[in-house]
Amino acid sequence: MKLYSTNNKNNLVSLKQAVMKSLPEDNGLYMPVSIPKLSKSFYKDLDRLSFKELSYQICLNLFDGYIPENKLSEIIDRSVNFPAPIVSFDDHTHLLELFHGPSMAFKDFGARFMSQLMAYFNEGETKRLSILVATSGDTGGAVASGFYNTPGVEVIILYPSGKVSDIQEKQLTTLGNNITALEIEGTFDDCQALVKKAFLDSDVNNHLRLSSANSINIARLIPQSFYYFEAFKQLPSKERKVVFSIPSGNFGNLTAGVFAKMMGLPIDKFIAATNLNDVIPQYLDSGEYTSKPSVATLSNAMDVGDPSNFRRLKNIFSGNGSTWNNMRNHIVGLRFNDSYTKAAIKEVDSRYDYTIDPHGAVAYLAYRQYQIYNEDCQGVILETAHPAKFIDAVETILDKKIHIPDKLATLLDKRKSAEFLTKDFDAFKSWLMNHY
Ligand SMILES: *Cc1c(COP(=O)(O)O)cnc(C)c1O
């Protein structure tokens, strides 16, 4: 399997290079040279395949022998190890629950698969691999649990002090072993700046073998295509047109859905559902891409002003005719503000007796809007996080207590362990140089 950089189609690398480096030097993003269609027999058998089996078949087809079958099966076994069930509100409306992993958000799929691939590519190395990652909340928890106890790999997570939720902080700071949390007196941007500087510092690079667990790593997108198949498999009707409504920030989830469609999954349309950070719906309306500073909303994991995967989408839809028109043939963009989101959380609670989180609520709104002009479709709304991750907001909106799953409740009782550092690079550098 070969990958190219979106900035230079002649810059080809192996999967190992793409995964270990995360980003090409020319500042593009890695993309597979080909995303082949799955065979007729795969689709014929799909209903009978388990989630793990279909994920394995997808990788086999995509990697084309690059990873030995027994290794691949181990990687899938350890990463696709929780379900993605569908909950049906009615014949036309289904919700895909992507929060059954350890951090209770869909980012677990990407983080676990990436950690397994990195551990595999790291086999036989004598020097330990140090993964540096800055998080504003959700990514850190998924990465921490994905790499927990991975031999030969340690993870150093930087997070902004006082700016992540209690649950998110506990997810980063209670694992121990090969996971170290650094609580930085500063913002998320400060954390990210420290990580960037460390990658450029020759002393640090001589001392540690560094890698990043960045969200634009191709290893995070690939497994996110698996659950589109898993959702399709569970749908009651295979005849009605299938639409996926995707609550979007950096558009990794939506791009992975487009990969699934390229592999032959019959998806009629994608709905790019955003909050007021609507750069892509704006582009779909006007043909102009204009990034803008992000604004804070209730669905804060989607507060992104310059979605990183837009470059991958542009690349996919370039070619015959206008990129804008090609993209509009597949993706519909819709945005909603927080008052609509609150109303949707209430509506889903009262009509379906279901507690939806603020991100899923945006996708729910977008699908309902889409349905007005498209009556006979079958919609799958991606529910990207468990509502208890946003417990304060959701309990206030619904004016009642919501259930906290055991997984989160036990976490809250655990003791936090983190090193406190200022945002000064020299302090961070000397911590890195001295921590063995
Ligand atoms: C990260 C995140 C999103 C946005 O996903 P993208 O792939 O960046 O578009 C949506 N919902 C939740 C809960 C998230 O954590």
Overall shape = globular
Weakly predicted, low-confidence segments? none
Structural class: alpha/beta
CATH fold-level label of one domain = Rossmann fold
> What order do the strands of the largest sheet run in, or round the barrel if closed?
4-5-13-10-11-12
Instruction: Tell me the CATH architecture of one domain.
Output: 3-Layer(aba) Sandwich
Give the helix tally: 19
What is the β-strand count? 14
**Beta-strand percent range:** 15-25%
Distance between the termini: 37 Å
Spell out which ligands are present.
pyridoxal-5'-phosphate
The whole-angstrom Rg is: 21 Å
Please outline the major beta sheet: 6 strands, mixed
Average residue-wise pLDDT: 94
Helix content bin: 40-55%
The CATH C-level class name of one domain: Alpha Beta
Please describe what this structure looks like.
- With 436 residues, this protein is an alpha/beta fold.
- The chain has a domain at 83-102 and 220-406: 3-Layer(aba) Sandwich (Rossmann fold).
- Helix content is 45%, strand content 18%.
- The protein has 19 helices and 14 strands.
- The strands form 3 sheets. The protein has a 6-stranded mixed beta sheet, sandwiched between helices. Strands 9-6-7-8-14 form a 5-stranded parallel beta sheet, with helices on both faces.
- Strand 10, helix 11 (252-262) and strand 11 (269-274) form a beta-alpha-beta unit.
- Helix 6 (138-147) runs parallel beside helix 7 (166-173).
- It is globular and about 60 Å long.
- The two termini are 37 Å apart.
- The model has no long low-confidence stretch (mean pLDDT 94).
- The chain binds pyridoxal-5'-phosphate (PLP).
